[in-house]
Specification:
Radius of gyration: 19 Å
Largest sheet: 5 strands, antiparallel
Strand content: 15-25%
Number of helices: 7
Shape: globular
CATH class of the largest domain: Alpha Beta
CATH topology of the largest domain: Alpha-Beta Plaits
CATH superfamily of the largest domain: GHMP kinase, C-terminal domain
Oligomer: single chain
Number of strands: 7
Strand order of the largest sheet: 4-5-3-6-7
Length: about 250
Amino acid sequence: MPPEKTKAAKAASLTLRHLNKDSRGGLLTVESTIPVGHGYGSSTADVVATIRAVADAFEMGLRPSVISRLAVEAEQASDAIAFEDQAVLFAQREGLVIEHFGDALPPIRVIGFKANDGQLVDTLALPPARYSSEEIQTFSMLRGLAARSIRFQDPRLLGQAATLSAKISQRHLAKAQFATALGIAEQFDACGVQVAHSGSLIGIILDASAVGIADASRRTAHAATAAGFKDVVVQPIYSGGGAVEI
């Protein structure tokens, strides 16, 4: 329940098969406040929670790598949330970790929001991006930049990598007002900008350890709201606290 959670239902069946258990009966209820179709990872959250719940019903645990493989089988492409705070380079359509970066992301705050068109994105109907050779070479450089940012816990390096990646994504799944978001990030000396590569979300990355971070977060969020962005939220990442709606 509810019946439209078909990916979760498939994930439950796949997990039962993996555990070599039959499905004589049981009730799985999925409750979530995560909006769908914008890049929040709602379907992966449903699927990963389902896989864990089914395994827990048999008092069994599954490794993140197994959960990710089952999740991809259930929904074709999956986020890496099964690895929780481990920063990994993840093949979303294969369910495989390409590289473990050895630590969590550096402490940051993300001012997240949707562009004012608010268009839903059907992930399954979205064709995979066909990157140019130049873009692929850039991704190789970004991989090294991300690894260095995590090794040295440097939010600015992470922001640089995210911004360059977001600009490449803009050529394949354009976000309305992307240039406006870049302007706000520059105005408040943010670390960078990130986007959902299969959704409508944009985020401005701030250094959570910077002096005056609370005030900077508020001012950045208010600027995003004034620019017409929707559902503006301040989300601390590995820096304590929960999301704050603006």
